[in-house]
Amino acid sequence: MFLSVEVTWVEAARAGAATVGGADRPRAGGWWNRADGHDVPLHMNTLRHHRLTAATLAVALLAAACGGIDVGDAPTDDELVGEWELTAGTGPAGEIVLVDGYPITLSIGEDEAWGGTAACNAYGSDVTVDGPRVEITEVFQTEMACVEDGVMEAEAAYLDAYRRATSVEVDGDVLVLRGDAVELTFQRRPPEPEAYVPGTVWQVVSLLEGTGPDGAASEARGGASLVLHDDGTLALDTGCTEHLGTYTFDEETLLVEQLSGDVTACDEPLGPQQDHILRIFDGPVHVEHEGLALRLTNPAEGIGLDLRADV
Questions:
Q1: pLDDT tens digits, residue range 195-244?
Q2: Are 175 and 246 in contact (CB under 8 A)?
Q3: Which end of the chain is more exposed for a tag (fewer CB within 10 A), N or C?
């Protein structure tokens, strides 16, 4: 984009002239801004000076029209596409404080679909890429609440900064989004191997309670895990009790047909977790699986589990 700016030397000089109390005021180089509105011409040295002033003003206006943000070379599609994880970031409110175990990620697809995980919730956005320029609009997200300290604050700070990004730069395995008071630095994530649902040890990471704005996620404790064996049997550890059972699985639905084991109530803080995990399998369980991540939800109970493959 080019900006055409025409500033005459008289107009540029007038911008800095002063008239106080209606009197003529002298200026350097013989310039007078008279109270009657007539301008006394400058000599040639002052003329050259104000031509420079006009040129400087034109450059400043051009920079303002471009947003005032330095923009590098346009990244190629191959450079952009992939999985990225935030390693450092600042936004209008200052530094984004990352929380261990709650990564902030950005996934960029070939169709300019941008989204990821914002510490707690999944998010997506409509993005237009034009060379190094980006326009991020219509950011949308799930509405779970994570109770660990700092997680929701990190998410809010990141999404606020992300919405304000106006340029993108890629240098090898580093991607940087910039905007007014915004700099988000990401590191490329290596492709995750695919873990098959049966035959993998799945560690319980989070307990999900409810959906929408009233939903919440809390950290699982005690090494809770689930193994779905290839022969149709399963082993479940709630963090304090162990259970065996059988199951059927059709890619999207898991149905536990028999579940036996120790039914002794666990002491705090594992008692509520034990109850939560056992309730998951009281009916059909919806399965969402991608890479090393697994989510199990019981729609009837309004609860779920986030699990990760132990590889």
A1: 889 999 999 999 998 866 567 888 888 999 999 999 999 999 999 999 99
A2: no
A3: N
Three-class secondary structure assignment of 61-121: HHHHHCCCCCCCCCCCHHHHCEEEEEEEEEECCEECCCECCECEEEEECCCCEEEEEECCE
Q: Are 93 and 51 in contact (CB under 8 A)?
A: no
Residue ranges and CATH numbers for the domains of the chain are 9-65 (no CATH), 77-188 (2.40.128.270), 201-309 (2.40.128.270)
With b meaning 16 or more CB within 10 Å and e meaning fewer, what string describes 1-31? eeeeeebebbebbeeeeeeeeeeeeeeeeeb
Q: Answer yes or no: is pLDDT of 117 > 90.
A: yes
What is the per-residue pLDDT for 265?
81
CA 278-280-281 angle, to 5 degrees, is 75
| Residue 114 burial (CB count, 10 A) | 23
Residue 213 has a pLDDT of: 59
Rounded distance between C-alpha atoms, residue 94 and residue 108, angstroms: 25
What's the N-to-C CA distance of the chain in angstroms?
A: 50
Nearest to 295 by CA among 211, 216, 208: 208
Structure tokens at 20: 């106080």
Beta strands 174-179 and 165-171, pairing class: antiparallel
What value does the mean pLDDT of the chain take?
A: 79
Specify the pTM: 0.57
Please report, for residues 81, 105, 228, the alpha-carbon distance to residue 225 in angstroms, rounded to integers and kept in the order given.
33, 25, 10
Check: CB of residue 207 under 8 Å from CB of residue 218: yes
Asked whether the beta carbons of 182 and 161 are under 8 A apart, the reply is yes
pLDDT digits (tens, 9 = 90+) for 46-102: 323 333 334 433 433 334 444 444 455 788 888 999 999 999 999 999 999 999 989
Question: What gap in Å lies between CA 44 and CA 234, rounded to an integer?
Answer: 92
DSSP bridge pairs for 174: 171, 187
Element containing residue 196 per DSSP (H, E): none
